[in-house]
Amino acid sequence: MTPIRWLLSLIFIVQMYLAMAVLAVLFAPWALFSRRGARVACKTFCRWVIVSLRVLCGLRSEVRGTPPTGECIIAAKHQSFLDIILIFNAVPAAKFIMKRELMYAPFLGQYALRIGCVPVDRGKRGAAIGRMKADVAKGAAEPGQLIIYPQGTRVAPGTSKPYKVGTGLLYEQLGQPCYPVATNVGIFWPKRGILRKPGLAVVEFLPPIAPGLKVQDFMARLEAEVETNSNRLMAEAGFRT
Protein backbone atom coordinates (compact mmCIF):
# COMPACT_ATOMS: atom_id res chain seq x y z
CA MET A 1 0.00 0.00 0.00
CA THR A 2 1.52 3.30 -1.09
CA PRO A 3 0.87 6.43 1.01
CA ILE A 4 -0.67 8.24 -1.98
CA ARG A 5 -3.21 5.46 -2.55
CA TRP A 6 -4.16 5.50 1.12
CA LEU A 7 -4.51 9.30 1.03
CA LEU A 8 -6.68 9.22 -2.10
CA SER A 9 -8.88 6.57 -0.46
CA LEU A 10 -9.29 8.80 2.58
CA ILE A 11 -10.18 11.76 0.37
CA PHE A 12 -12.73 9.60 -1.43
CA ILE A 13 -14.40 8.55 1.82
CA VAL A 14 -14.56 12.10 3.18
CA GLN A 15 -15.98 13.57 -0.01
CA MET A 16 -18.48 10.69 -0.32
CA TYR A 17 -20.08 11.49 3.03
CA LEU A 18 -19.96 15.21 2.32
CA ALA A 19 -21.75 14.56 -0.97
CA MET A 20 -24.35 12.51 0.89
CA ALA A 21 -25.06 15.41 3.23
CA VAL A 22 -25.14 18.05 0.49
CA LEU A 23 -27.43 16.04 -1.80
CA ALA A 24 -29.72 15.12 1.08
CA VAL A 25 -30.23 18.79 1.91
CA LEU A 26 -30.58 19.92 -1.72
CA PHE A 27 -33.17 17.27 -2.55
CA ALA A 28 -35.05 17.52 0.78
CA PRO A 29 -37.93 19.75 -0.44
CA TRP A 30 -38.67 17.40 -3.36
CA ALA A 31 -38.05 14.22 -1.37
CA LEU A 32 -40.35 15.36 1.42
CA PHE A 33 -43.37 15.42 -0.86
CA SER A 34 -42.41 12.86 -3.47
CA ARG A 35 -41.05 9.34 -3.24
CA ARG A 36 -39.67 9.89 -6.74
CA GLY A 37 -37.70 12.87 -5.47
CA ALA A 38 -36.14 10.72 -2.75
CA ARG A 39 -35.28 8.04 -5.27
CA VAL A 40 -33.67 10.53 -7.68
CA ALA A 41 -31.59 11.88 -4.78
CA CYS A 42 -30.37 8.39 -3.91
CA LYS A 43 -29.53 7.54 -7.52
CA THR A 44 -27.68 10.83 -7.93
CA PHE A 45 -25.59 9.96 -4.88
CA CYS A 46 -24.89 6.46 -6.24
CA ARG A 47 -23.68 7.85 -9.56
CA TRP A 48 -21.48 10.36 -7.77
CA VAL A 49 -19.88 7.57 -5.73
CA ILE A 50 -19.31 5.42 -8.83
CA VAL A 51 -17.62 8.24 -10.75
CA SER A 52 -15.55 9.62 -7.85
CA LEU A 53 -14.42 6.10 -6.93
CA ARG A 54 -13.08 5.61 -10.44
CA VAL A 55 -11.41 9.02 -10.58
CA LEU A 56 -9.82 9.04 -7.12
CA CYS A 57 -9.13 5.35 -6.49
CA GLY A 58 -8.95 3.79 -9.95
CA LEU A 59 -11.78 1.41 -9.02
CA ARG A 60 -14.08 0.82 -11.96
CA SER A 61 -17.44 -0.92 -11.64
CA GLU A 62 -19.56 -3.09 -13.87
CA VAL A 63 -23.07 -4.53 -13.70
CA ARG A 64 -23.49 -7.83 -15.53
CA GLY A 65 -26.57 -9.83 -16.37
CA THR A 66 -30.04 -8.35 -16.74
CA PRO A 67 -31.28 -6.24 -13.81
CA PRO A 68 -35.00 -6.81 -13.18
CA THR A 69 -37.53 -4.06 -13.77
CA GLY A 70 -40.70 -5.69 -12.41
CA GLU A 71 -41.72 -6.71 -8.91
CA CYS A 72 -39.34 -9.30 -7.51
CA ILE A 73 -36.97 -10.25 -4.75
CA ILE A 74 -33.25 -9.63 -5.19
CA ALA A 75 -31.11 -11.86 -2.95
CA ALA A 76 -27.54 -10.60 -3.05
CA LYS A 77 -24.10 -11.35 -1.72
CA HIS A 78 -23.12 -8.49 0.60
CA GLN A 79 -19.43 -7.61 0.93
CA SER A 80 -19.37 -3.82 1.33
CA PHE A 81 -21.29 -0.57 0.85
CA LEU A 82 -20.35 -0.67 -2.82
CA ASP A 83 -22.63 -3.59 -3.70
CA ILE A 84 -25.55 -1.65 -2.20
CA ILE A 85 -24.73 1.32 -4.44
CA LEU A 86 -24.30 -0.73 -7.61
CA ILE A 87 -27.47 -2.79 -7.15
CA PHE A 88 -29.59 0.23 -6.21
CA ASN A 89 -28.35 2.18 -9.21
CA ALA A 90 -29.06 -0.73 -11.58
CA VAL A 91 -32.77 -1.25 -10.87
CA PRO A 92 -35.63 1.23 -11.17
CA ALA A 93 -37.38 0.95 -7.79
CA ALA A 94 -35.15 -0.71 -5.22
CA LYS A 95 -36.10 -1.04 -1.57
CA PHE A 96 -34.03 -2.87 1.02
CA ILE A 97 -34.67 -5.05 4.01
CA MET A 98 -32.49 -3.11 6.44
CA LYS A 99 -31.42 -3.19 10.07
CA ARG A 100 -33.71 -1.01 12.17
CA GLU A 101 -30.68 0.81 13.64
CA LEU A 102 -30.05 2.38 10.22
CA MET A 103 -33.29 4.34 10.56
CA TYR A 104 -31.42 6.67 12.88
CA ALA A 105 -28.38 7.20 10.66
CA PRO A 106 -28.25 10.86 9.52
CA PHE A 107 -29.66 11.35 6.00
CA LEU A 108 -29.29 7.67 5.10
CA GLY A 109 -32.04 6.49 7.42
CA GLN A 110 -34.56 9.17 6.45
CA TYR A 111 -34.11 8.63 2.73
CA ALA A 112 -34.17 4.84 3.11
CA LEU A 113 -37.59 5.02 4.75
CA ARG A 114 -38.79 7.49 2.14
CA ILE A 115 -38.03 5.12 -0.75
CA GLY A 116 -39.83 2.24 0.96
CA CYS A 117 -37.07 0.26 2.71
CA VAL A 118 -38.30 -2.15 5.36
CA PRO A 119 -36.61 -1.86 8.78
CA VAL A 120 -36.28 -5.11 10.71
CA ASP A 121 -35.50 -5.60 14.38
CA ARG A 122 -32.61 -7.80 15.38
CA GLY A 123 -33.67 -10.28 18.00
CA LYS A 124 -34.70 -13.85 18.46
CA ARG A 125 -34.83 -15.68 15.17
CA GLY A 126 -38.55 -16.46 15.19
CA ALA A 127 -39.58 -12.99 16.30
CA ALA A 128 -37.31 -11.33 13.76
CA ILE A 129 -38.69 -13.43 10.88
CA GLY A 130 -42.29 -12.80 11.94
CA ARG A 131 -41.72 -9.07 12.14
CA MET A 132 -39.95 -9.02 8.79
CA LYS A 133 -42.80 -10.84 7.06
CA ALA A 134 -45.36 -8.50 8.64
CA ASP A 135 -43.40 -5.38 7.65
CA VAL A 136 -43.01 -6.62 4.07
CA ALA A 137 -46.72 -7.42 3.87
CA LYS A 138 -47.55 -3.87 4.97
CA GLY A 139 -45.43 -2.48 2.16
CA ALA A 140 -46.62 -4.95 -0.46
CA ALA A 141 -48.73 -2.30 -2.19
CA GLU A 142 -45.62 -0.31 -3.10
CA PRO A 143 -44.21 -1.88 -6.29
CA GLY A 144 -40.52 -2.38 -6.72
CA GLN A 145 -37.57 -4.68 -6.28
CA LEU A 146 -37.16 -5.90 -2.70
CA ILE A 147 -33.48 -6.42 -1.90
CA ILE A 148 -32.40 -8.73 0.88
CA TYR A 149 -28.99 -9.99 1.97
CA PRO A 150 -29.50 -13.67 2.84
CA GLN A 151 -26.46 -13.83 5.11
CA GLY A 152 -27.74 -10.86 7.08
CA THR A 153 -24.54 -8.84 7.10
CA ARG A 154 -21.39 -8.02 5.15
CA VAL A 155 -19.20 -11.06 4.60
CA ALA A 156 -15.54 -10.59 3.70
CA PRO A 157 -14.13 -12.54 0.71
CA GLY A 158 -12.96 -15.97 1.76
CA THR A 159 -15.22 -16.00 4.83
CA SER A 160 -18.16 -18.35 5.26
CA LYS A 161 -21.45 -17.43 6.90
CA PRO A 162 -24.73 -19.38 6.78
CA TYR A 163 -27.72 -18.23 4.74
CA LYS A 164 -30.73 -17.30 6.87
CA VAL A 165 -34.12 -18.86 6.17
CA GLY A 166 -35.89 -15.48 6.23
CA THR A 167 -35.14 -15.03 2.53
CA GLY A 168 -36.87 -18.33 1.74
CA LEU A 169 -39.90 -17.40 3.82
CA LEU A 170 -40.24 -14.08 1.97
CA TYR A 171 -39.90 -15.92 -1.35
CA GLU A 172 -42.70 -18.26 -0.27
CA GLN A 173 -44.90 -15.44 1.06
CA LEU A 174 -44.59 -13.03 -1.85
CA GLY A 175 -44.77 -15.57 -4.69
CA GLN A 176 -42.40 -13.48 -6.79
CA PRO A 177 -39.32 -14.48 -8.81
CA CYS A 178 -36.03 -14.13 -6.98
CA TYR A 179 -32.93 -12.80 -8.71
CA PRO A 180 -29.68 -14.01 -7.11
CA VAL A 181 -26.81 -11.51 -7.29
CA ALA A 182 -23.11 -12.39 -7.07
CA THR A 183 -20.28 -9.95 -6.46
CA ASN A 184 -16.55 -9.48 -5.90
CA VAL A 185 -16.63 -5.91 -4.53
CA GLY A 186 -15.17 -6.86 -1.16
CA ILE A 187 -11.78 -7.46 -2.75
CA PHE A 188 -11.50 -3.76 -3.60
CA TRP A 189 -13.73 -2.08 -1.00
CA PRO A 190 -13.25 -4.09 2.20
CA LYS A 191 -15.68 -4.60 5.04
CA ARG A 192 -13.44 -2.47 7.24
CA GLY A 193 -10.56 -0.10 6.61
CA ILE A 194 -9.83 2.95 4.48
CA LEU A 195 -7.96 1.61 1.46
CA ARG A 196 -9.93 1.32 -1.79
CA LYS A 197 -7.97 -0.77 -4.30
CA PRO A 198 -7.94 -0.21 -8.08
CA GLY A 199 -9.51 -2.83 -10.33
CA LEU A 200 -12.91 -3.87 -11.63
CA ALA A 201 -15.68 -4.35 -9.08
CA VAL A 202 -18.58 -6.41 -10.42
CA VAL A 203 -22.12 -7.23 -9.40
CA GLU A 204 -23.82 -9.84 -11.56
CA PHE A 205 -27.55 -10.45 -11.78
CA LEU A 206 -28.09 -14.18 -12.29
CA PRO A 207 -31.11 -15.83 -13.96
CA PRO A 208 -34.21 -15.63 -11.76
CA ILE A 209 -35.49 -18.46 -9.61
CA ALA A 210 -39.17 -18.83 -10.42
CA PRO A 211 -41.70 -18.91 -7.57
CA GLY A 212 -43.08 -22.21 -6.38
CA LEU A 213 -40.11 -24.08 -4.91
CA LYS A 214 -40.18 -25.43 -1.39
CA VAL A 215 -38.30 -23.17 1.01
CA GLN A 216 -35.56 -25.73 1.65
CA ASP A 217 -35.00 -26.34 -2.06
CA PHE A 218 -35.03 -22.62 -2.79
CA MET A 219 -32.45 -21.87 -0.10
CA ALA A 220 -30.12 -24.62 -1.32
CA ARG A 221 -30.31 -23.36 -4.90
CA LEU A 222 -29.90 -19.73 -3.91
CA GLU A 223 -26.81 -20.36 -1.81
CA ALA A 224 -25.21 -22.56 -4.46
CA GLU A 225 -25.75 -20.01 -7.24
CA VAL A 226 -24.66 -16.93 -5.27
CA GLU A 227 -21.59 -18.54 -3.72
CA THR A 228 -20.42 -20.32 -6.88
CA ASN A 229 -20.70 -17.21 -9.00
CA SER A 230 -19.24 -14.88 -6.36
CA ASN A 231 -16.24 -17.21 -6.11
CA ARG A 232 -15.93 -17.10 -9.90
CA LEU A 233 -15.97 -13.29 -9.94
CA MET A 234 -13.43 -13.11 -7.13
CA ALA A 235 -11.13 -15.57 -8.88
CA GLU A 236 -11.46 -13.51 -12.05
CA ALA A 237 -10.22 -10.52 -10.05
CA GLY A 238 -7.22 -12.48 -8.79
CA PHE A 239 -8.50 -13.43 -5.33
CA ARG A 240 -7.34 -16.77 -3.95
CA THR A 241 -8.61 -18.33 -0.73
Q: For the CA atoms, what is the radius of gyration?
A: 18 Å
CATH architecture descriptor name? 3-Layer(aba) Sandwich
Q: Structural class, judged by helices and strands? A: alpha/beta
Q: What is the CATH H-level superfamily? A: Glycerol-3-phosphate (1)-acyltransferase
Q: Largest sheet at a glance?
A: 7 strands, mixed
**Looking at the structure, what is the overall shape?**
globular
> What do the pLDDT scores average to?
90
Number of self-contained structural domains: 1
Ends apart, CA distance between termini: 20 Å
Number of distinct beta strands: 7
Low-confidence stretches: none
Please give the order of strands in the largest beta sheet.
1-7-6-2-5-3-4
As a percent range, the share of strand residues is: 15-25%
Q: CATH top level?
A: Alpha Beta
Instruction: Give the helix tally.
Output: 7
Quote the CATH topology.
Answer: Glycerol-3-phosphate (1)-acyltransferase
Helix content: 40-55%
Q: Which sequence of SSEs, written as H and E, runs from N to C? A: HHEEHEHEHEHEEH
